[in-house]
Write a structure and sequence with these properties.
This protein has 571 residues and is α/β, with parallel strands linked by helices. It has 19 helices and 16 strands. The strands form three sheets. It has an eight-stranded mixed sheet with strand order 2-1-3-4-5-6-7-8. It has a five-stranded mixed sheet with strand order 12-16-13-15-14. The chain has a three-stranded parallel sheet with strand order 10-9-11. The chain is elongated. Its main location: membrane.
């Protein structure tokens, strides 16, 4: 019972052919330790176990019964925690899965399998020590036993070589891993080398494929396997033999270098072991600029506008207080407004304090005007673009459409009928016989300004260097596949799935995945005007406000000094 608690098995199935009385006696022993036990002489009982919990299984060898030969291979996956009570390793174990979690129980006292004919003979409480041996099943090297834990009256259940077991499972000892690699954009006509050279060539711009292949290499190295490449034509086909999903689901391959998004239909065929790539696709086109009704207000945040109003009122009051003549006092507010609007003003005070206040006002208005004009010019350069925002609007627009020729684009978007009404509307109105074309040709059409070109966004970034800065700022996109994480797939419930998941977690922990992405991932060319188009916030103008406040205080101090000097001279 302690063994299964360590394995976190919620229930236990005992495969043995005993009488009802023997089953009751054995059940009492497990019930005493809080374990739930089911007895069966039929291996089909394993089909009824839950797919979401670990299942404990005890197999007791009996000469007249051979239940082990009738058990399905899938019942030896890692979710089933097996405990074998037998003198020898059954020959059939060599045909089981690599991830099989099998433990053989051995007592230090001698016994033979004939002693397991009834439950009363299996009393381990009187033995001095019971050893639990891990059964390591390798598809090429065969079966081996390794001591893992022991049980005794004095110390109970103790794991002595748990780390050794983990290291043993993580090392597949150069076993060949068949890796499915989609052809991507490779062609002997366009690339002058082999496909293997194409996958590692840094001058090739096929980032998704190269990133997936790089991650597959890291996974293979992490488990000490060897690489066997299986090139295929398609990524997502469910029917053609030369596709990632078909190869993995039929267990013709252990790993894929092509990343896939998690979709409900695919989860019936593959498992996902490692998140890798943010995938998105859509149309790219050059839009016309259009002005907006509130573009004159947007450069400043509301707090900045209120700050300008407050500073203007304070300066107007300061200018009125420091004015010497009544005419200057009456025109103080108009002088402030005219100065802030960068208009000429004849309301310059005569006194020293008034002139200083007017100077502070002029400097403040000049700096605010500089903030405002630079912000609004860059905003006009980078925002306010017109053009369609949805697929239906694109269908009704002046733009023609074209697309990259890729099997996932054909097989999921344009080559099949979908239940997306806007997409079907666009296809009916705009698709032509020359719809599919090369990326370089597609970018040239984008540059002309009359075509929206469809591709995976990251695939097109490198080719956008022919666009001018003005064109880059006009560039707009319409998504057909919004940004979503793509994962490394493997065979569904395959015998290597768990160790590959562990290896994937290790690759992320050590930072190797981030380094791979930084080396391969490209970024869209920046709109230089947009880099200056940030709104002016309160903290941006805080130094200006502090300087203006200091100037106002200084002008009041000068006013006091001026009054004192005037009174002194009047004596």
């Amino acid at each position: 019972a302690e063994f299964f608690k360590h394995k976190v098995a919620g229930s236990i199935i005992v495969l043995v052919c005993w009488s009802s009385l023997d089953e009751v006696n054995y059940t009492k022993q497990f019930s005493f330790h809080g374990a739930k036990v089911t007895f069966s002489c039929n291996a089909s009982v394993l089909d009824k176990s839950s797919d979401y919990h670990s299942q404990g299984v005890i197999y007791i060898q009996q000469e007249q019964h051979s239940i082990l030969d009738k058990i399905k291979k899938e019942h030896f996956m890692h979710r089933y925690k097996w405990l074998l009570l037998d003198d020898n390793i059954p020959d059939i174990i060599s045909k089981f899965r690599y991830d099989a979690d099998i433990t053989m129980l051995r007592e230090e006292t001698d016994y033979n399998t004939s002693s397991f004919d009834n439950a009363t003979s299996i009393q381990l409480y009187d033995t001095r020590r019971v050893t639990f041996n891990d059964v390591y099943v390798h598809p090429r090297d065969g079966v081996s036993l390794h001591e893992w834990a022991y049980w005794s009256h004095k110390s109970g259940f103790q794991v002595t070589k748990g780390w050794e077991r983990i290291k043993r499972r993580r090392d597949v000892n150069k076993y060949p891993f068949r890796t499915v690699v989609p052809m991507g954009h490779y062609s002997k006509n366009t690339y002058g080398g082999t496909y293997t050279e194409y996958l590692v060539d840094p001058t090739v711009h096929d980032a998704i494929l190269q990133c997936g292949y790089g991650a597959a290499v890291l996974l293979i190295e992490a488990v000490n396997a060897t690489e066997v490449l299986l090139p295929v034509k398609n990524w997502v086909s469910f029917t053609e033999n030369s596709s990632i999903i078909v190869k993995l689901s039929s267990e013709s391959a252990e790993l894929s270098a092509g990343v896939l998004r998690i979709l409900r239909k695919r989860t019936d065929y593959v498992d996902y072991i490692m998140p890798l790539w943010l995938f998105s696709a859509g149309f790219t086109y050059l839009a016309d600029r259009e002005s907006s009704s509130n573009m004159y207000v947007e450069p400043f945040t509301p707090s900045v506008w209120w700050s300008c109003l407050g500073v203007g009122l304070i300066l107007a009051l300061a200018l009125r207080v420091t004015s010497m003549r009544q005419k200057e006092k009456d025109g103080a507010y108009i002088a402030v407004i005219a100065t802030w609007l960068q208009q000429d003003s004849d309301g310059v005070p005569e006194g020293m304090a008034g002139r200083w206040t007017f100077t502070v006002l002029s400097v403040c208005s000049m700096l605010v005007h500089a903030y405002y004009t630079s912000a609004i010019v860059s905003a006009l350069m980078s925002t306010g673009r017109g053009g369609p925002k949805t697929l239906r609007e694109l269908g009704d627009s002046r733009y023609a459409i074209a697309s990259e020729s890729h099997d996932f684009i054909k097989g999921m978007i344009f080559g099949v009928k979908t239940n997306w009404t806007d997409l079907e509307y666009l296809k009916r109105k705009k698709m032509t016989s020359r719809f599919y074309m090369d990326i370089k040709e597609g970018v040239k059409l984008i540059q002309e300004g009359n075509t929206a070109y469809h591709s995976e966004y990251h695939q097109i970034y490198h080719y956008l260097n022919i666009l001018s800065d003005d064109d880059i700022c006009k560039m707009q996109t319409i998504d057909t596949i919004p940004e979503k994480m793509a994962w490394m797939p493997t065979s569904r419930r395959g015998e290597w799935t768990e160790i590959l998941r562990v290896a994937g977690a290790w690759i992320y922990e050590t930072g190797l995945a981030q380094r791979l992405l930084l080396r391969i991932k490209e970024h869209p060319p920046p709109c230089r005007a947009a880099m200056l188009a940030e709104r002016v916030t309160f903290w941006d103008v805080a130094p200006l406000l502090a300087l203006t406040t200091f100037g106002v205080v200084a002008s009041l101090a000068l006013l006091c000094l001026e009054i004192f000097v005037a009174k002194y001279l009047a004596r």
